Amino acid sequence: MQLPLPVTLPVDENFDSFVNSGNEEVVSVLKQIAEALPHWRQAPELAPLASLQLPLLTLLGSSAIGKSHLLFATCHHLANKSVSHLYLNLNNYRAWSLDIFEGLENLSLIALDNIHAIAGDLHWEEALFDLLNRVFETKHALVMCTSQLGPSNPAFVLPDLRSRLAWGVIYHVNQLDDNGREEALRLRAAERGLTLSNQALQFLLHHSERDLKSLMSLLARLDTRSLQEQKRLSVAMVKRELKLS
Questions:
Q1: What span, in angstroms and rounded, lies between the C-alpha atoms of 27 and 46?
Q2: Tens of pLDDT along 62-81?
Q3: Of 6, 70, 114, 153, which one has the greatest count of Cβ atoms within 10 A?
Q4: How far apart are CA 27 and CA 130, in angstroms?
């Protein structure tokens, strides 16, 4: 089995920093799973998941809306409990060999980010299909994945894989509204110890890309600039970082 390089997940992307607005149900379920693993099948609140033919949960939605954040949060919780798990971002699959999936069915959680990345690559679709079959047979691991494509999407060329993906449960992750994005930025700034004035926050929200990934990346750059300049985060600093002045 080829082990992937160790992955350091973003420490600030946890359940506490995820704004639930519009996604309360899926966040509640993931917290229940993270708390119950490795004995999740005995948790009464997870009986609907345990009754599935395949213990597979897919977070479905467009890019940069927080799907990966939820995977990271679940993995952080399991790491703190020393529960066996592995996170793989399939955007990087071309750097791996097909045997990377071997033996993963023996873990408590298999976290597969961006499974849509392998759509159309028959060899990798077959490898994922084989992994899901082993999970089905061993009845040990729980699989949690994210995707921009639904299980029946024809971009997945292997009919058997589309069938297996449909055996799981799907949660649609909704994009945050303006109030949710503001709350998310405030939370992340507080975690970083950043003092973010309301004026700077509003300027940032109205003069940058609106997706969460871009906003959080900008906040990280502003954090670095604030440390370098030994100044509080201000509208002027946001302007300089966005090259607006």
A1: 13
A2: 998 999 999 999 999 999 99
A3: 70
A4: 29
